[in-house]
Specification:
The protein is an alpha/beta fold. The protein contains 12 helices and 10 strands. The strands form 2 sheets. Strands 1, 2, 3, 4, 5, 8, 9 and 10 form an 8-stranded mixed β-sheet that branches. Strands 6-7 form a two-stranded antiparallel ribbon.
């Protein structure tokens, strides 16, 4: 496939895996999660993972991107497998790891539909922080969840991220005030087009997780208002930013605010018997 496709051409790629590969020639996920506003999502997620890890934990990071979570946890757990399908991200992941002396990280350029190589009941923690952003086929979505369940130990935790459909039009309007006229929005169906990412309402994401058999422990607005406030957050003083983070941490599980976030985090427990 042509490496010089325009973003509009990439938007029109029907094959989910091909579109994912080309997308990350445009998106710099590494920089986003290192910005002050991007760190809100990362710090919120880490707070939840930290509750269930220890030095004996075996972790699987599916859709590891450039290694944001893999690198954060490599010296806090026993072992990490980091799978990332997009070549640009995978190369950056391995480049980033060279800055450390970890000997417990295994990286593979594989996607969430290629987990057959992994043994059953091996991992204590499975992170799914990218796959469901890209899979439009429900069969593939359930395969991803079911394979994560298979490789995760009984009683282990699976953390799943979704992009919140109902916040997308609001965020897009922040960048384009005529989005509701000219954006990828259908006024008849009240739906946003699933491009370049796949979007889920809260009910849709909850229904999918429940269909897989996972027990939902909590649903979290992992970045909340942070993208809408991104310019302000980047200018915050240290004290203002720390206070904002504490406000966010104390409100991100409020049911009333779950719709006001670009990313949803599901904390689930794998109960097999």
């Amino acid at each position: 496939m042509d490496k010089d496709l325009s973003f509009c051409e990439v938007m029109n790629i029907d094959d989910d895996l091909q579109r994912n590969e080309m997308l990350y020639k445009f998106f710099d996920e590494d920089s986003r999660l290192k910005s002050k506003f991007g760190m809100v999502e990362k710090l919120t997620t880490i707070r939840e993972i930290d509750k269930v890890i220890n030095l004996n934990t075996k972790m699987l990071d599916i859709g590891a991107g450039t290694g944001v979570y893999t690198i954060n946890y490599a010296d806090k757990v026993s072992e990490i497998y980091a799978f990332e399908p997009a070549e640009n991200n995978f190369l950056k992941l391995n480049e980033n790891l060279k800055n450390y002396n970890f000997n417990n990280v295994i990286t593979k350029q594989l996607n969430s539909l290629e987990l057959e190589i992994l043994p059953d009941d091996y991992f204590d923690i499975v992170l799914l922080f990218g796959p469901l952003y890209h899979l439009s086929n429900k069969e593939h979505q359930l395969k991803t969840l079911n394979d994560a369940i298979r490789v995760c130990k009984n009683g282990g935790h699976i953390f799943i991220a979704f992009i919140n459909h109902d916040m997308v039009p609001i965020t897009e309007t922040y960048y384009n005030f005529n989005y509701f006229e000219k954006g990828a929005y259908n006024k008849e169906t009240q739906r946003v087009r699933n491009r370049p990412f796949i979007f889920f309402t809260i009910d849709e994401s909850k229904s999918l997780v429940e269909e897989s058999g996972l027990k939902i422990e909590s649903i979290i607005a992992s970045d909340g208002f942070s993208e809408l406030l991104s310019e302000k957050i980047e200018k915050m003083s240290y004290v203002a930013y720390e206070n904002y983070l504490q406000w966010h941490f104390n409100h991100c599980k409020n049911k009333e605010l779950l719709g006001a976030t670009n990313h949803l985090l599901f904390v689930t427990k794998n109960i097999k018997y």
